[in-house]
Amino acid sequence: MSPKTLGRNDGSRDVANAIAELAQQAPATLAPLAAIAYDYRWAWEPRATALFAAIDPEMWRRTTNPRHLIEAAAPRRLAALAARTEYMAELRAVSDAFFAGAADPAAADAGAGPVAYFCSEFAIHAALPIYGGGLGVLAGDLLKAASDAALPLIGVGLAYRQGYFQQRLDPDGWQHEYWVDCAFDRLPIVRVGDRDGGVLTVSVPIRGRDVRAQVWRLDLGRVRLYLLDTDRDDNDPVDRWITSRLYVGDRRTRLTQYAMLGIGGVRALAALGIEPSLVHLNEGHAAFGGYERLREHLRAGTSFDDAVAAVRAATIFTTHTPVPAGNEAYGVDEVEAVLGRYFDDLAAPRERLYDLARLRPGDSGEGLGITPLALRTSRAANGVSRRHGEVARAMWQPLWSDRAVDDVPIGHVTNGVHVGTWMAPPMQALLDRHLGSDWRRWRADDARWDGIAALPDAELWATRSALRAALVEYARTRSVLDRLSRGDTPEYVAQAAEVFDEKVLTIGFARRVATYKRLYLLVRCPERNLRLLADVDMPVQLVIAGKAHPQDHDAKNTLHAIFGAKAIPNVGRRVVFLENYDLAMALRLVSGVDLWLNLPRPPLEASGTSGMKVAMNGGLNLSVLDGWWSEAFDGENGWGIATPEGDPQAQDDHDAAAVLDLIEHEVRPLFYERTAGGLPVRWLARVKRALRTIVPQFTAARMLHEYDERMYAPPTG
After folding, report:
1. How many domains does the structure of the chain reveal?
2. What are phi and psi of 374, to 5 degrees?
């Protein structure tokens, strides 16, 4: 694909001005630091982060915000760095690598426009908390992969001023939520200005009022992310709240967010001078943007049917949610209360507009669903794993009632993760030494991946041991702080200093605490669990993390039940729950654990990506055969559990017992079986098999390539 010219109002001038202003905070020779700071590529380039960490290691550890770091650094410290020959040489090398040939591919002068990628959340870095879970992580990884591949893509989302909630647990294990304002004006992002020197805004009629949104621009190498923000003085206080929090519990507020993301996002692209060749809806939250693009065609005199066809021809849709509650629908009255005035301006019959979002067109009693709307206005749709594609075809077959389930036009592109973000530097260095530095660019079917089998056992084990030791140290430190802040008993706090041993088999379970993820299976067989924790010959230790949605009371009860066991002997020093799970913590966990547990109730796991990250760091998966693992597991690269069909209680009993059986009789013996030289050779053989089968196939680069070839490319014939 080649991109189409962008207007001059895309924020490039604002980024240049911001870089120039930040550069004034340091000696002139350090000016490249400012340009690097405003390019979030530093988030996955260790050499760049090392440059910032050298300024003030403690401040960098606390903030990981390069703009704030440069602005707050003592002038004498910056002057000292500017005088260091080694530092300046590294700064020049990193700057050259960042910006040599790094022109924005979406700003070229000819050809088709970029892909506009709409998503309700983007996980770019922990310092920008506009993400809640796997959907945002997937979106962030895809943008990063597009930057690496120089594929013209533009991200569109919302600038949540308070982001997702922060988590605190009390001594009894009850979750409490709080929110913290994100200081956008202190981050390395810019507010886009208009041509007259003011702030660029777009307006959307919501609840009978014209709601204005300003636009922030964030750069990730060759890719741009634009975020809409309604927190403006000229908006009604209620409307300023629209982009305040991610995944708010109130349905009406979520509906206004979806309207702003979809309709406002399309209008923002027009105001920025960006003409996309294709719109990619990552989940249905931005589906209302289809109405706005329909409006543009209708205003040009196109008939309704032809306008719908034109919108469909330039849209693809990725569904992520096999859980019915995640596919939201709204009654006509609810939608009219928010978008009635907007629909008045479409000059199209209401029922025809409504029918685009209904399973059964013509049924006036049916509400409007965002997923049906996305499917009806897209030329192609996909699930996010092979198994999820099957589930989605069955789930949405009513939209194609004349077709058999297997003929429903929903395919799949299995998710992948961004290697530069999720593979720890020591593991990357190991592969660099033995595969060559260009392995990151190999295709999944490249035979050179076979070289993984020849990785020296001693080096692989040393790398794994170092990553586990880093996690153990992190868990100890965080456990002390978490327990102190909760007001736990002195005895329980003291145990935190003894938490974990860097030589012990370390098991992880960390993810969004949704009921279908079945965290509660970990305490379903208490006697067996306690015997496992008490074993001194083949000990295990468990790290748990995750947030329950504020309105998911079942999930909160699960957390409470987990905490109920903390006073039992061995639990306090062999099991830790780390509060406030985020991107930074996730990287520590997935890189340090030896075994990753994943226990969703099939078929409710659309894909999952955490296990991919674990495998990329030399860990192994023990997972229910659902989502991505049902196509990745080959019998030798981890362990799989085939959940029987039928009664949920029977499923839970089976899977809880299966987990313990596998850990007791296969996982532990394999981990602790050592040669005379102290190496777990058979365990490492399984690790190598996981690296060989998962690293090439489950990357964001492979995922993006499939989207580009199978979904983004214009249909033929």
Report:
1. 3
2. -65, -40
What SS3 state is found at 642? coil
Backbone φ, ψ for residue 68 (5° rounding): -60, -40
At 109-141, the pLDDT tens digits run 345 799 999 999 999 998 898 998 889 999 999
- Show Cβ contacts of residue 649 under 8 Å, excluding neighbours closer than 6 positions: none
Q: Match 């200093």 to its residue by tokens.
A: 497
Indicate whether 522 and 572 sit together in one domain: yes
- Quote the CA–CA distance of 10 and 154 in Å, as a whole number: 11
Domain that holds residue 32: 12-99
Q: What H or E segment, with its residue span, contains residue 290? A: helix 289-299
The single residue listed with the structure tokens 């209708």 is: 298
Tell me the DSSP string of 29-87. GGHHHHHHHTSGGGGG-HHHHHHHHTT-HHHHHHH--HHHHHHHS-HHHHHHHHT-HHH
Q: Is the pTM of this model over 0.90?
A: yes
Chosen domain end from 77, 99, 121: 99
716 is written with which tokens?
Answer: 């033929």
Token digits for 241? 């709240």
Taking only the tens place, the pLDDT of each residue in 500-530 is 889 999 999 987 788 888 888 888 887 887 8
Q: Please indicate, yes or no, whether residues 26 and 92 belong to a single structural domain of this protein.
A: yes
The residues pairing with 225 across neighbouring beta strands, listed in sequence order, are 155, 218
Boundary residue ending a domain (69, 99, 129): 99
Q: Is 274 helix (H, G, I), strand (E, B) or coil?
A: coil
Confidence (pLDDT) at 278:
97
DSSP 418-472: -HHHHS-HHHHHHHHHHH-TTGGG--TT-GGGGGGGGS-HHHHHHHHHHHHHHHH
